[in-house]
Write a structure and sequence with these properties.
- By secondary structure, the protein is mainly α.
- The chain has one domain: Arp2/3 complex 21 kDa subunit ARPC3.
- The protein has 7 helices and no strands.
- It has helices spanning 5-22, 34-45, 47-64, 70-90, 97-116, 119-123, 128-162.
- Helix 5 (97-116) packs antiparallel against helix 7.
Length: 184
C-alpha cells in the first residue's frame, strides 16, 4: 500500500475531528464518531492505520483531559483490536452503509462487553451484576449512536479517504494532445 503525505493528513484530520467532537461539553457518554471513522480508515489504509487511529483517539483524549489511567489502556486496547478486526472484516466486503452498520453493531457489543464488564469490577470494585445492569442503557445509547454514525458518516469518510483527483473532461489536456494538424 502506498501511503502518501495526503493519507497522513487525512488520518490526522480524522483524529482531530474525533477529538474535537469528544471535547463537546455536556454530550452524552459514548456518542462519538471513533468507530465510524476507524472503520473507513481500516478499509482504506489497512491494519496498522486502523489500529493506530483507534488507539491514538483514546490516548489523545485521555491525555488532554487529564483522565489517563489504567482504564485508558483497556479502552485503547479494545478499540485497537476493533481496528484490526475491521481491517479483516472489510478485506472482502464492500465499503457500504450495510457493512458499516453491521460492523458497528458487532464492534459496539464487543467493545462494551470488554470494557464495561471489566473496568468497573477491576478498577472501581463494582460487582459484576451492578456492572452488567449499568451497562445496558449505556450500551443501548452507544449502539444507537454508532449505528447512526456508521450509516451517515462512514460511507462519506471512506469516499474522502479514497477519492482521487478527477480529470476535468471539459478542459482539453493540452500537455498530452497532439497540437500538430494531420496533413495526410
Amino acid at each position: 500500500m502506498n501511503l502518501s503525505k495526503k493519507n497522513y493528513l487525512k488520518f490526522s484530520l480524522g483524529l482531530l475531528f474525533c477529538l474535537l467532537e469528544r471535547l463537546i461539553p455536556f454530550r452524552a457518554p459514548n456518542v462519538e464518531p471513533i468507530l465510524a471513522t476507524m472503520m473507513p480508515m481500516s478499509k482504506a489504509y489497512g491494519a496498522l492505520m486502523g489500529f493506530s487511529f483507534a488507539v491514538l483517539s483514546i490516548l489523545l483524549y485521555d491525555t488532554l483531559t487529564g483522565t489517563l489511567g489504567l482504564q485508558t489502556f483497556f479502552t485503547a486496547g479494545a478499540y485497537g483490536m476493533l481496528g484490526l478486526w475491521a481491517t479483516h472484516y472489510f478485506r472482502k466486503k464492500e465499503a457500504n452503509r450495510g457493512n458499516f452498520v453491521r460492523f458497528a453493531i458487532m464492534g459496539t457489543l464487543f467493545y462494551d462487553a470488554v470494557t464495561g464488564l471489566t473496568v468497573g469490577p477491576i478498577f472501581f470494585h463494582q460487582s459484576f451484576t451492578a456492572s452488567l445492569v449499568g451497562q445496558i442503557p449505556f450500551t443501548a445509547l452507544h449502539l444507537i449512536s454508532n449505528i447512526a454514525f456508521a450509516f451517515i458518516l462512514s460511507p462519506a469518510i471512506y469516499n474522502i479517504l479514497v477519492r482521487k483527483k478527477k480529470e476535468n473532461k471539459f478542459a482539453p489536456n493540452i500537455i498530452n494532445s497532439n497540437l500538430q494538424p494531420k496533413t495526410t
